[in-house]
Design goal:
InterPro entries: Diverse_substr_monoxygenases (IPR051260), Luciferase-like_dom (IPR011251), Luciferase-like_sf (IPR036661), NTA_MOA (IPR016215). The protein is an alpha/beta fold. Helices cover 38% and strands 16% of the residues.
């Protein structure tokens, strides 16, 4: 029997993924935008909708990065509102374990799970820079290993709070208005957190909300293998996906878990056309809209850590090498390149091999997993990735907000259903049932 594909929709916000200058692109703040995408995802029988969260506006060379602003309303507030206009769609939100506290996050996510009837998910992330920390009283900066130590204990503590109520704790005399027999008493003492008290909410409809982890680093993979239900990753080819899939799944046995206990769902974009040629031409147009000349130079400056504003984006790479000792020019985004000099060497080789300009190189180097073709071709390609163990499904990132998901839901999903690899209707009411029903 073929594997059943898992699908999620990512509301991307204003950044270099979204073609935010397109007249069809809507507001990133108006609730109607969130509602539109959520209703589309539910119409398409998706597992969940996924919101990232920007804790500070990104800056480049001391100015707000207008082509890559991740600014939006509070994640849990938006998801709570979406719970009122959907009935089956899962609701996943990102909350940092670096600048929040366990009790606060446990209460927020538990509340969302109760309000939605068991559809909440928490994407656990770490925040890597002191620049973002300036928005918080605790502030500061944590090294990578320290961030993951905090994150691991953070998640353990949250789960202790969720489990502090017995399943049958909410009982009592309805006429007398007395319902609580045993409240959620908790005590946690560890290197990161030393707290005790009473949790305010009983166990949620899911027992525990779904936990998602985003990250491709070795620490992130191990964290996901130990603790997560879903890992949100990125890879660009079938072979890379299979390697990631194999590596993460093999780690599960060390924690007494099976392959089915952790779902791997990479981010992916898609472009559809009436013909394959039309789809590829449209995809090329989209990438050039996403990577404008100024955007290309800014991307290059992230690696070079030099002012390259005098260079022509349609010209060759700078002859000068990156300055590895300089301060970053971009603040507020994850630094994906740990060795800038080595990254520049690889980019030079790629540019020379394919005769690429700066802009063409940035497009080549930053393109994430893409599915391009007719709706039927895309359905078959998505299915091929899942059946060949490159993933368990995908988190789709449309290039238009909020209407970019419509085509996939209306044109690709029916082909997946015809292949017998995607649901024709929801069979459960909770997100955990969507993701893990056998």
């Amino acid at each position: 029997m073929p594997k059943q594909i898992k699908l999620a929709a990512h509301f991307p916000g204003v950044n270099n993924t979204t073609v935010w200058s397109d007249p069809r692109s809507g507001s990133q703040i108006d609730f109607a935008s969130f509602e539109h995408m959520a209703r589309t995802a539910e119409r398409g029988k998706f597992d969940f909708i996924f919101l990232a969260e920007g804790l500070r506006l990104r800056e480049h060379a001391g100015k707000i990065l207008d082509s890559d602003v991740v600014g939006r309303p509070n994640t849990t507030t938006v998801l709570a509102a979406l719970s009122a206009v959907t009935s089956r769609l899962g609701l996943a939100g990102t909350l940092s374990s670096t600048f929040n506290e366990p009790y606060e996050v446990a209460r927020q996510v538990s509340t969302l799970d109760h309000l939605s009837g068991g559809r909440a998910a928490w994407n656990v992330v770490t925040s890597p820079d002191a620049f973002t920390g300036q928005n918080f009283r605790r502030g500061g900066f944590l090294k990578r290993e320290d961030r993951y130590q905090r994150a691991e204990e953070f998640l353990t503590t949250v789960r202790e709070l969720w489990d502090s109520w017995a399943p049958d704790a909410l009982v009592g005399d309805k006429q007398q208005g007395v319902f609580v027999r045993e409240v959620g008493r908790f005590v946690h003492s560890g290197p990161q957190f030393d707290i005790e008290g009473e949790f305010t909410l009983p166990r949620t409809p899911q027992g525990q909300p779904i936990v998602i982890q985003a990250g491709d680093s070795d620490e992130g993979r191990e964290f996901a293998a130990k603790s997560a239900d879903v890992i949100f990753s990125r890879h660009g080819t079938l072979e890379d996906g299979q390697a990631f899939f194999t590596d993460v799944k093999r780690r599960l046995a060390a924690y007494g878990r099976s392959h089915e206990d952790l779902l791997i769902m990479p981010a992916a974009t898609f472009v559809l056309g009436d013909t394959e040629e039309e789809a590829h031409e449209y995809a090329r147009e989209i990438r050039y809209q996403q990577v404008r000349p100024a955007t290309a130079i800014q991307f290059l400056e992230q690696v070079w850590r030099r002012d390259l504003s005098e260079y022509d984006a349609d010209g060759p790479l700078p002859e000068v090498d990156p300055d590895p000792d300089a301060e970053p020019l971009t603040w507020g985004r994850v630094q994906l390149h740990q060795d800038n000099v080595e990254t520049a060497r690889k980019w030079r080789a790629l540019a020379e091999e394919k005769k690429l300009s700066i802009r063409e190189l940035v497009i080549e180097a930053t393109t994430r997993q893409q599915f391009i073709g007719t709706p039927q071709q895309v359905a078959h390609t998505v299915n091929d990735y899942v059946q060949s163990d490159a993933s368990d499904g995908f988190v789709l990132v449309p290039h238009l907000t909020p209407g970019g998901l419509d085509e996939f839901a209306d044109k690709v999903v029916p082909h997946l259903q015809e292949l017998g690899v995607f649901r024709t209707d929801y069979t459960g009411s909770t997100l955990r049932e969507h993701l893990f029903s056998r």
